[in-house]
Amino acid sequence: MNPMLNKTLRALCAGMMSLAVVLPGACNAQGDKTVNIKFDNAFFYKDGKFDLEKGKDAIIALMKHHGYPVYPGIREKLFVSDYGLGHFTEVGLAAVMWKNNEPDRYMLMDIYLMPNQMLPEHWHQAAKGNPSKLEGWLVRYGLSHIVGEGDPNLTVKVPAIHNGGKVTVEHEVAAKPGDFVPLNRGGAHHWQMAGPEGAIITEVANVHTDAGVRHLDKAMNDFFLKDVK
Q1: Exposed, middle or buried by CB within 10 Å (0-12, 13-18, 19+), for 39?
Q2: Least CB-packed of 113, 160, 191, 193 within 10 Å?
Q3: Whole-prediction pTM value?
């Protein structure tokens, strides 16, 4: 950050705190590293079922750990899924869709991955009158191994619960905060895996259509599409 801008922001935060007016996350750009973001898989399950609220608890903790602003009402906006696999610490997704404008075909979404968690291999096809989704990812916090088409150079291990530990694309970009990685073409297979402190990523795209999403793992694909209309 520009030193002068950083100094100004610190002064503003100090002034806000003196007035006892503090916006969630606004004055904690470095995050709270005392917040636990390492969870046993059992934490997320009750009677064998994924506990959505526990999933949201973990994502809020991830936000606080990194200093991401916990906006009012963000918990209610969170989509969290274990894809029906029962292994959320290994494979899963949490996201907030800030905007998906189908008429004008643009979208903005934030993705939240827990430490070493994999966003499964998938791709997008045309559906519901929308084109194949063409997207790109800006890492905001943490580290994400963003994987797609290209020469194989994979450094991370795919969990066995994901398609028997197999993927079809293995070209990895280890993306750090400020790195933007675009999908090379519409319809290309891709997946991600977070680093040891998880990752928070902003995704931009032409448009998102649930009916156009396909997952490599059949069990995950069936789980995702069962409620899609």
Answers
A1: middle
A2: 160
A3: 0.87
